[in-house]
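We emphasize that the prediction below concerns an isolated chain of 276 residues; any contacts that depend on oligomerization or on bound cofactors are therefore not represented. The input was used exactly as deposited, without trimming of termini.
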Amino acid sequence: MGKIGIGLNLEAVRTSHKSFEWGVQFAAELGYEYIEPMVHWGRELLSEARYFHSVSMLDDPFRVRDAVERHGLKLSALSSHSQLSKPEIAVEYLKQAARFAKECGAPILNTHEGHKQTWTTEEEDFVLIKYSIMEAVKVAEPRGIRIGLETHQTYSLVPDKYEKILNLVDSPAVGANFDTGNAYLGGLDPIEQLERFKSRIIHIHAKDISHEQSEAERGKVMGTAVGCACGDGVIDWEKVAAILKPLPQDIVLSVECGSLDQAARSIDHLRKVLGK
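Result of the prediction step, given as a token string:
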């Protein structure tokens, strides 16, 4: 059996206007084992001023590596979301993210297919998505970096089409980054979908959805930025753990929540569920 780790996606510190380094220390103090930082192209004012957690891929990757090691943590993945259906965005972004990941020590890049463009057909979209994945794989696979394709948008929240995306490129570098909350809000049963895709899963966005958000948005949206604290919402984490525990691959539950107190409650709940 593989190991199940608990990590924190640094989106949890976004609304606190803190830096990447602050977020790493915060996660360590709560007892998280892993973190999932966000990376971006170019330069961005709030990140440069250390009021935002995202790291520029023009920075030295050792900035990430050293901060993580200094606090005794590990990287579960990089949040490197791009629009796979827009190769002019996705290809160079993911190629750079793969190089950055290799140097900073992140084993996985997480991304998704992006919003549906109005002027393309579905058949054309899948050609564009395949092109982006293939170009990214050519850089990621030789470096031992995997690409986690997330349940998030137009096609990936339709199970048969998500399976098609996962199979567009035949490479061991391609796997599923399953987002429990996005699946739920998309009208799916996340437990049923976890069971279906369990052999492909390489990373989990542990996102819970509040009962209020469920009533207001389920079946009307394609995912959401962050969820509530794990254990406060609609996701059955005991059933999630029951599916993941027998799997042979190591998987990190990367908590995607919206505040510092939610991050604290999430790790407490997941530790109880996993018996840690």
